[in-house]
Design a protein that fits this description.
Strand content: under 5%
Number of strands: 0
Helix content: over 70%
Structural class: mainly alpha
Largest sheet: none
Low-confidence stretches: none
Length: 106
């Protein structure tokens, strides 16, 4: 049962890796944003996609490296944890930013 969950998680991470790349390509915009609120939201979206992309890469590298390279494995685990929490904070900041902007407008 544990190996099935691990394979499912690896598949989800692989799909989300591709989705992050697509999301960053869609957010790639040469024109200037209309106002600071839009620009802040775009930056938060880009940061969340970028941090999750770092998580996916570090998670994939963690599965590929040899067990003898303990220092690299620990570094990758720290990187996955930090990027996971940074992604969570960016995703949490998006609705909080909208709520703050809505409060200021009223």
């Amino acid at each position: 049962m544990h190996s099935i969950n691990l394979l499912c998680h690896e598949a989800v991470v692989a799909v989300s890796f591709v989705a992050c790349i697509v999301g960053l390509i869609l957010l790639w915009d040469r024109k200037q944003a209309k106002n600071d609120i839009e620009e802040t939201e775009k930056i938060l979206f880009r940061m969340s996609f970028s941090y999750w992309l770092v998580y996916c890469v570090a998670f994939g590298m963690e599965k590929i490296i040899l067990p003898d390279w303990e220092t690299l494995a620990i570094s990758l685990k720290i990187t996955t944890a930090l990027s996971y929490f940074l992604t969570f904070s960016c995703v949490l900041s998006l609705p909080l930013h909208r709520f703050a902007v809505h409060q200021v407008e009223e």
